[in-house]
Recover the amino acids of this structure.
């Protein structure tokens, strides 16, 4: 599983929005978003640019 840190999440609504954004990226599966760790993990291959753009569209930032 790959993991990325996400800056800006503060509530369960943020978690749901992040999960929905990641589910919209073709090829990603087993998506989990952890509010406490401010991380999202997933299986699958995706270019970093695509991932960052999907998260930026909902107002958050991928920091790693």
């Amino acid at each position: 599983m790959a993991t990325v840190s996400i800056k800006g999440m503060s509530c369960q609504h943020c978690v749901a929005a992040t999960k929905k954004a990641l589910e919209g990226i073709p090829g990603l599966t087993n998506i989990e978003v952890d509010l406490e760790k401010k991380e999202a993990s997933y299986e699958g291959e995706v270019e970093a640019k695509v991932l960052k753009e999907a998260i930026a569209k909902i107002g958050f930032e991928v920091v790693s």
